[in-house]
Amino acid sequence: MTRGTKVMDLINRYIYAVTQKLPESQRADIEKELQGLVEDMLEDRGVGVETANMEEVEQVLLELGPPWEMAARYRGRERYLIGPGLINSYWSVLRIVLYSIAIALGIVYIIDFFTSTEPTAEKLLELLVSLLSVGIHGFAWVTVIFAFIEYRGARQVPNDPWKPSELPAIPEPAARIKPIEPVLGILFSVLFFVLFTFSINLIGVHRFDENSIAIPVFEQAAIAKYLPLIWLLTAFSIFNEARKLITRKWTP
Questions:
Q1: Residue 130: enclosing H or E segment and its boundaries?
Q2: Is 112 within 8 Å of 199 (Cβ atoms)?
Q3: Per-residue model confidence as pLDDT tens digits over 149-176
Q4: pLDDT of residue 192
Q5: How far apart are CA 77 and CA 70, in angstroms?
Q6: Residue 164: CB atoms within 10 Å
Q7: Which of 153, 172, 185, 206 could staple 241 via S-S, CB 3.0–4.6 A?
Q8: 214 has which bridge partners?
Q9: Which residues of the chain are under the pLDDT cut of 70?
Q10: Considering Cα of 111, then 112, then 116, then 119, what sign does the dihedral take?
């Protein structure tokens, strides 16, 4: 890697680190603004991007400050339950969770409609009540998860002096997670939750004839003891998939 390439790579890593903490709608404009700002500061030192060395670029970046501080200046204020850097991902995950809940409960309702002898009106009322109840739980889960991610990110600001050389590399496009992967992960997590919480009786051997019967695999009373664990596993799974959707890369 030539000196000019290393210089541009360092600048790009800094800009990437800043813009990832800002709303997606602002990133392109701020990226151009930061690029111009760095070039102007280098020109004030009598060098250009092509001729600057690493030490000169590092001095410029040190003057600009750590990426999280620069991002905070663009945001204009510091305290958020869910900050601008996460808000778009928050809405995306919330929509995915709510849609998944609607799909899962809809599937359960359709299956139950064809296998149950209860009146249709009662089943429809149960569906609406379940949609409201589970939807509220889903909203609460996603909000708490993203608030925790925001809080954890704020707590991870290092106390040691910041060094531009420690900026993480920009992820390669080929190494980034496709959005469909965490979306499917969230969908299956919600399906798992709905199935074991509301329709455990559907897991079993079904016989469809004049006298439709179902032999359940799990005893509902026994599974009820493990519901808190099931909810915890679902929340952890959604948290993990949300993290993937935010970072778009595989991280340990």
A1: helix 120-155
A2: yes
A3: 877 765 455 556 777 877 877 766 666 6
A4: 83
A5: 12
A6: 20
A7: 185
A8: 206
A9: 1-4, 76-80, 84-85, 114-120, 153-160, 171-176, 201-220, 247-252
A10: negative
Which of 139, 147, 144 shows the shortest CA–CA distance to 100? 139
Q: 163: which DSSP letter?
A: -
Strand locations in the chain (E): 204-207, 213-216
Residue with tokens 């929509």: 95
Q: Kind and range of the H or E element at 62?
A: helix 54-64
In the chain, where the domains are located: 1-77, 79-252
Q: For residue 55, what are the contacts with CB-CB under 8 A and spacing of at least 6?
A: none
Residue 165, CB half-sphere, CA atoms under 13 Å: how many?
A: 5
- Token couple for 77: 């204020």
Rounded-to-10 torsion of CA 19, 66, 155, 229 = 30
Structural contact between residues 104 and 191, judged by C-beta atoms closer than 8 angstroms: yes
Pair of tokens at residue 28: 């392109």
Q: Which two tokens stand for residue 196?
A: 């074991």
- Please, which residues have CB within 8 angstroms of residue 135's CB and are 6 or more apart in sequence? 98, 101
Answer whether 0.90 is exceeded by the pTM: no
